[in-house]
Amino acid sequence: MKHQVARIHPDDNVLVALVDLPEGTPVPWDGMTITTTARIPAKHKLATRDFEPGDLITMYGVLVGKVRQSIPAGGLLTTSNIQHATDSYDEHQHEKAPWTAPDVTRWQDRTFMGYHRSDGRVGTANYWLVIPLVFCENRNVQVLEEALVTDLGYARRKSYQPQTQALISLMQAGKSVEEILQTDLHSDENAPQGPNRLFPNVDGIRFLSHEGGCGGIRQDAQTLCGLLAGYITHPNVAGATVLSLGCQNAQVTMLQDEINKRSPNFDKPLFILEQQKIGTEEAMISMALRQTFAGLMQANQMRRQPAPLSKLNIGLECGGSDGFSGISANPAVGYVSDMVVALGGSVILAEFPELCGVEQELVNRSVDNATAERFSQLMKAYGDSAIAVGSGFDMNPSPGNIRDGLITDAMKSAGAARKGGSSPVVAVLDYPEPVTKPGLNLLCTPGNDVESTTAEVGSGANVVLFTTGLGTPTGNPIAPVVKIATNTALAKRMPDIIDVNTGTVIDGEETIEQAAERILDYVVRVASGEEVAAVRHGQTDFIPWKRGVSL
Fold this sequence. Notes:
About 1% of the residues have low confidence. The protein has 17 helices and 24 strands. Helices cover 31% and strands 19% of the residues.
């Protein structure tokens, strides 16, 4: 049964509106009735008592704000009457929190059909990569894409050209502006990939582009090479073609060193072409085409084979979050995280600006003092760097977040952190370090959706669970990004980009645990080759983080 409001944690002193509550609505709660003193939109918060300036606001059992203007019981919390506030934390007060793993008996013998690599990891896909080592090569990457994609059977983009042609015909027929505006147009979609692919066991060729590799500081080049090495050595990748100019900061030797760090016995086909050595564009493109085609022939020899769920490495991401994210999709994904950890797999929780306010909880969940201290050091350094340029984690919520109920960064963070479940933190990684341990890994990244997703995959995630309350089409070049709606209205409004709906939790139709089991079942199918919406749309977002302040 659907309720009017919800309290997330017993210690909370505000309620979340699950439906729109007009002014004057009586809300029965905890043996009393609170009457709303203003309209409370769904996803927003109402006060359970009178608040005065200086009072503290608690959600998810943690401090998420401080009152700056009086709020009556039943009043709406806004950016005008509360401000961001968090509790302090101390990594030296490391009280290891106990953890009870969920019962995963029914999943113990489940497998997914994946691509087994020589380093023991298993891919959920089999892609060939074409990568520029420096932005100067972006055009040549584009030339290769134009030469390869269509003839090899990988073209699948929806074409709106017929709509333009129809509009031209209408204008030439003398139709008015008003008539043209009222015309119903339809797009034309290319035939899906499948039997026409020349290499049926290769899921696609992914052509990356970026603005790095030269300029900036030397550390930028080193970090970029580490990220690109993470993609080249990724279990979802069969091999790669790398285009280098020759004189840039991101040298070939730097990339090779980063590859060796991640895969000392690297044995995938890898072709590196340096334009300043080869000469003309035609000579370079011709050589790249021959080598890439030969690599695809090798990649096509791979076949999917059964793999245990311990081979899953799940990236945890949220974007376009709303006031329901922390009570439906994020805790459901958190329960999935705990199940994957209990099965021996790995999960990655990133977006450090969105862990602001829950640091002590993560410190207490760290497996040892060194892990707790590294997390604290990275969080404090990140926060200090934001303040140094006149910003701060309190500026993280976007206008869309605020409009849909996430009015302080601490409130947003407390809900975002629930994606990480409750298992122990086994490692803390600085971007772009790889995951090497099963269990919950924390990865230092920005809160920016694409920068963070790009980083998680670079660290080894072979599937990404991406929760959204407002809707975002984000995908990744090599890892399936499962888009999970926090509310049913979004799932109905944007069904072309949503894979799973957890609005069922808000609607009272399903528990968190039931939603999580449904998500994990879907993940197994995706890991075995079922396409997600982002793949169908050709959504291959890739943005390296140039180390600096990005919230």
